[in-house]
Amino acid sequence: MDSSVGHGLRDRWFKNDGGRMKRPPRTSKLKLANSVEVPWVSIDFCSCLDKARAVEQEIVSCCEAHHFSEADVFAIRLALEEALVNAVKHGNKLDKCKNVKVNYHITDQRADITIEDEGRGFNPAGLPDPTADENLEMCSGRGILLMRAYMTSVVFNPSGNKVTLTKFNEDYVPPREAAIG
């Protein structure tokens, strides 16, 4: 069989770098109409619930400024509070020597928020089902269920010490283009 057969696609998409094949960086060619590049905001703070509440308020205020509905702001606030409290209390065990890292990117269309603690992490699939009869009267264990119910997407990293929350703005209406002519 000819060794060059089937390599056209590979040669187009990958470059040979000293014997290792590398894919070129992915860049989206999709540009939303009238979109403005909004940078990610990064915040690091020591494991303190008061500081977590201040970060929560900053992000919620940003969502309000981007015209998220009252229902969406409620959803973001609830999920964000759960994720921040989990990072401070469960991840970092309220150890003020450990930090929580928050990155967020809010636009009129969506809110993306990552929260990472310095703890050992956990397996979200290993949590008991809070809707099971034997867990209904427990006073904790519903935070992740609520996060998943209210956000568009909730994704944990493999080690379980970082969560990415995404909420699409349900009320977003793209601005109309100016009439030509």
Fold and architecture overview:
The structure is a single chain. This protein is of the alpha+beta class and 181 residues long. It contains 4 helices and 7 strands. The protein has one domain: Histidine kinase-like ATPase, C-terminal domain (Heat Shock Protein 90), CATH 3.30.565.10. A hairpin with a 5-residue loop joins strand 6 and strand 7. Helix 2 runs antiparallel to helix 3 and helix 3 packs antiparallel against helix 4.
CATH superfamily: Histidine kinase-like ATPase, C-terminal domain
- Strand fraction band? 15-25%
Radius of gyration: 21 Å
Query: What is the total number of structural domains?
Result: 1
Shape from CA axes? globular
CATH topology annotation: Heat Shock Protein 90
> Main β-sheet: number of strands, strand sense, barrel status?
5 strands, antiparallel
Please give the CATH class.
Alpha Beta
Uncertain ranges: 1-16, 21-31
Number of helices: 4
Q: Summarize model confidence as the mean pLDDT.
A: 84
Order of strands in the sheet with most strands: 3-4-5-7-6
In helices, the fraction of residues equals 25-40%
**Count of DSSP strands:** 7
CATH architecture: 2-Layer Sandwich
Distance between the termini: 61 Å
Order of helices and strands: HEEEHHEEHEE
Structural class: alpha+beta
